[in-house]
Amino acid sequence: MKIGLFFGSFNPIHIGHLIIGNYMATQTDLDRVWFVVSPQNPLKPKKTLARDHDRLHLVRLAIADNSKLKASDVEFGLSQPSYTIDTLAFLKEKYPEHQFVLIMGADNLGSLHLWKNYAQILAEYELYVYKRPSFEPGELASHPRVKIFEAPPLDISATYIRDCIKAGKSVRYLLPEPVWEYLESGTLYR
Ligand code: ATP
Q1: Under a CB-based contact definition with an 8 Å cutoff, are residues 129 and 101 in contact?
Q2: What is the edge-to-edge ordering of all strands in the sheet holding 32-37?
Q3: 43: pLDDT confidence band, cut at 50, 70 and 90?
Q4: 60 inside domain
Q5: CA 157–ligand 1 middle distance (angstroms)
Q6: Is there a contact between 88 and 124 (Cβ–Cβ < 8 Å)?
Q7: What atom of ligand 1 comes closest to residue 9's alpha carbon?
């Protein structure tokens, strides 16, 4: 299968992430999209980053029974901080039957040249890039391995959602219903 990998901290996963995942899984040649939850970097304790398993749980709640999408905790078992190139090498070896593609926003493509072994990533993997309002994809947009897609943009971020929760404001409809219910009834991000 051709699988798109969508990396993130998903702190928490929100509708913006799901729109991209669903678009890539249904409107491109990808068979599946895996949401790869990046672990908490132990060297950089971040007060606002929920624990790995809480974030993974929220991704699972969000995906529910959508068979085109999957939550992946593959990076939890790899050395940290996790570099995409290392995760890709691990997945390639573990799943030789699959072809992996990287999914990223145009904002990330602009800073790809700062990633560890970015040239190797481009040499070995296709990049499916979705446009984001007010971000220029930059020079790499014309790279033969890069494909640009027009997924419907939604300009929200996990930071905005965490800030709202902390301030006691409603985040209903910005999160999939089960994620919203889970956060409503718990203490996460408060
Ligand atoms: P934070 O506000 O905590 O930085 P985030 O909402 O940007 O979080 P990440 O977990 O960093 O979420 O996102 C994973 C990936 O999804 C990143 O590549 C990020 O650029 C992208 N992304 C985040 N929000 C959106 C959105 N609204 N639409 C499309 N892509 C998004």
Answers
A1: no
A2: 69-72, 32-37, 2-8, 99-105, 126-130, 146-149
A3: low
A4: yes
A5: 6
A6: yes
A7: 10
* Residue 102 structure tokens: 């990287």
In total, how many domains does the chain have?
A: 1
| Residue 137: CATH number of its domain | 3.40.50.620
Is the pLDDT at 138 greater than 90? The verdict is no
What is the percent of the chain with per-residue pLDDT over 90, rounded to a whole number?
A: 88
pLDDT digits (tens, 9 = 90+) for 89-111: 999 999 999 999 999 999 999 99
Output the pTM of the full model. 0.96
Tokens encoding 41: 């970097």
Q: Do the domain assignments include residue 185?
A: no
Which residues line ligand 1 at a C-beta cut-off of 6 Å?
8-11, 16-17, 20, 104-105, 107-108, 154, 156-159
Closest residue to atom 28 of ligand 1, CA basis? 16
Is 109 part of a structural domain of the chain?
Answer: yes
Q: Domain range holding 30?
A: 2-153
Task: Name the maximum alpha-carbon separation found in the chain.
Answer: 47
3-state secondary structure 118-161: HHHHHHHCEEEEECCCCCCCCHHHHCCCEEEECCCCCCCCHHHH
In a domain, 81, yes or no: yes
